[in-house]
Design goal:
- By secondary structure, this protein is an alpha/beta fold.
- It folds into three domains: 5-121, 3-Layer(aba) Sandwich (Rossmann fold); 127-181, no CATH class; 189-310, Up-down Bundle (Zinc Finger, Delta Prime, domain 3).
- It has 15 helices and five strands.
- It has helices spanning 13-29, 45-53, 74-77, 79-88, 108-116, 127-137, 142-152, 156-167, 175-181, 189-203, 207-222, 227-249, 262-268, 277-295, 301-310; strands at residues 5-9, 33-38, 62-68, 95-99, 118-121.
- Strands 2-3-4-1-5 form a five-stranded parallel β-sheet, with helices on both faces.
- Strand 2, helix 2 and strand 3 form a beta-alpha-beta unit.
- Helix 2 (45-53) runs parallel beside helix 4 (79-88) and helix 14 runs antiparallel to helix 15.
- The N and C termini lie far apart (59 Å).
C-alpha cells in the first residue's frame, strides 16, 4: 500500500518550480492547509517531522511541502533521519518534496519513495517539444517558433519570458517579429561591458558608477553602434544575472554555473545576492517599455537609451 509520499524532481528546474507552484495553488483551491518548508543548509529532519506531527491541529486537509533547491543541499544531509521516521510511521499527512535537480536512483531517498510513494521526474524538453510549447502558447508560425527556441538555448525560464514578451504584441507572431523583439544573446565581451557597468551601479547607487555607465554608452553611440543593440545587451545581461542568482541560491558552485559563460560568471559571482531579483525584473520591464516605444516610433532610440540611464 502506497503512503502519502510524493517526490518531484528532475534536471528541468523550471518544470519542477512550475509543478510546485501549480500544486500549491490547487491544494489551496481544494481547501487544504499548506505547511511549506524551504530547504536550506541548516535544515534538519526534525523540522519536517515536527510539521508532519503538527498536522493533526489542522484537521484532515493538510499537506507538507518541502522545496529543496538543488543537489548538495540539506535534503541529503539529513536523509537518514527522515527515512527512519517515514519507515516507522504508517499514517501521516501527505508529504511532497519538490527537488530542483535530478536525484540519483541509487540514493536512499529515491529508493524509499520508489518503494512506498510516488515519483514524478521532469526532464528538459527536446527541441521539438519546446517548439510545440511555444506554438501552444502563442499564435505563431513554425519558423518563428523555431527561432524562439534556438534563441533561448533550451532554457525554460528564458522561454517563459520570451513567450510573455511576445504575447504583448496581441497578434499573430512572425519570424520578423521574433528577430525584432526576441531575446538576443550578445556574446561580444566589449559591448557586454555596458551590462557589467549596469550591475555595478545597481549594486552601489553612487554617482561615479552612474557616470561610468553613461560614459560607456556614449562611447558606443559616438561609434554609431545601434542604440537598440545597447539596450538588448543590458536586457540579456540582466536575464543572465538573474539566472546566475537562481543557480547560486540552489547551491551551485562557481564551476557548476559556467554554462552561463566563464567571463560572465567570473565577473559577477561575487555580486550574487547584492541585488534583488525583483529590482532586476522591474528594470527589464522598463527596458521593454523603452524598446516598444522606440519600435512604435514614439521615442528616438538614442534619446531613449540616455533617458533610461538618467532615470535610474
Amino acid at each position: 500500500m502506497r503512503r502519502n509520499l510524493f517526490l518531484h524532481h528532475g534536471e528541468c528546474e523550471y518544470l519542477v518550480f512550475k509543478a510546485c507552484k501549480e500544486f500549491k495553488q490547487k491544494s489551496k483551491d481544494n481547501g487544504y492547509e499548506i505547511r511549506e518548508i524551504l530547504g536550506h543548509k541548516n535544515l534538519d529532519a526534525n523540522v519536517i517531522i515536527e510539521a508532519i506531527n503538527s498536522a493533526s491541529l489542522f484537521g484532515e486537509n493538510f499537506v507538507v511541502v518541502l522545496r529543496d533547491l538543488g543537489e548538495g543541499n540539506s535534503l541529503f544531509d539529513f536523509v537518514d533521519d527522515l527515512v527512519e521516521f517515514l519507515q516507522q510511521h504508517d499514517n501521516f499527512y501527505p508529504l511532497h518534496i519538490f527537488h530542483q535537480g535530478k536525484i540519483s536512483k541509487n540514493t536512499k531517498i529515491y529508493k524509499l519513495f520508489e518503494k512506498l510513494g510516488k515519483i514524478d521526474e521532469y526532464s528538459i524538453p527536446t527541441h521539438p517539444e519546446m517548439v510545440k510549447m511555444v506554438k501552444k502558447s502563442l499564435p505563431i508560425d513554425n519558423e518563428a517558433a523555431e527561432l524562439v527556441v534556438r534563441n533561448v538555448n533550451r532554457d525554460l525560464f528564458a522561454l517563459r519570458n520570451e513567450v510573455k514578451k511576445l504575447s504583448t504584441l496581441n497578434r499573430y507572431i512572425t519570424f520578423s517579429d521574433v528577430e525584432t523583439f526576441g531575446f538576443r544573446f550578445i556574446e561580444t565581451q566589449e559591448i557586454w561591458s555596458i551590462g557589467k557597468d549596469l550591475i555595478n551601479y545597481l549594486r552601489n547607487h553612487n554617482i561615479q558608477n552612474k557616470l561610468n555607465l553613461l560614459f560607456g554608452i556614449e562611447e558606443f553611440l559616438v561609434r554609431d553602434v545601434d542604440p537598440m543593440l545597447i539596450l538588448y545587451s543590458m536586457y540579456s545581461y540582466i536575464i543572465r544575472f538573474i539566472k546566475l542568482q537562481e543557480l547560486v541560491l540552489q547551491g551551485k558552485t562557481f564551476k557548476e554555473c559556467l554554462s552561463l559563460g566563464y567571463y560572465f560568471v567570473k565577473e559577477n559571482f561575487d555580486n550574487v545576492g547584492k541585488i534583488s531579483n525583483s529590482e532586476l525584473y522591474k528594470l527589464n520591464s522598463d527596458l521593454l517599455d523603452y524598446e516598444f516605444a522606440v519600435k512604435n516610433g514614439d521615442l528616438d532610440p538614442t534619446l531613449g537609451i540616455r533617458l533610461f540611464v538618467l532615470k535610474l
